[in-house]
Specification:
The protein has 94 residues and is mostly helical. It has a domain of 62 residues: Arc Repressor Mutant, subunit A. Helix content is 53%, strand content 0%. The protein has 5 helices and no strands. The longest helix has 15 residues. The radius of gyration is 20 Å and the shape is elongated. The termini are far apart.
């Protein structure tokens, strides 16, 4: 019986990161981009439960600056919510 469906890829191709595709058809996500020192300092307070206004007062900056720094940090870590952000940051600290 002849089959035109390939059973396996050559071993060299199977472990090349650039050519790997997950079973559901998407490439793996890129590794997290490190946060800046200021973003890490803000992240520390976010993880402790501080609000943007409290963080702003602690650093002597405006709440809008805190919001903008967090938005950039969310983008660097590919998250959209504060809860996701906290989870990733706590995972990076381990």
């Amino acid at each position: 019986m002849s089959s035109s469906i390939p059973v396996a890829r050559p071993i060299g191709q199977a472990f090349e990161r650039d050519s790997y595709t997950a079973p559901w058809g998407h490439p793996p996500p890129p590794p997290p981009v490190p946060l800046t020192p200021r973003q890490l300092a803000i992240a520390d307070l976010v993880c402790r439960g501080f609000t943007n206004a409290e963080i702003a007062r602690a650093f002597g900056i405006s709440p809008n600056t805190v919001r903008n720094r967090l938005a950039d940090a969310y983008q660097r870590l590919s998250v959209t919510t504060r809860a996701e952000f906290v989870g990733i940051v706590l995972g990076l600290q381990r």
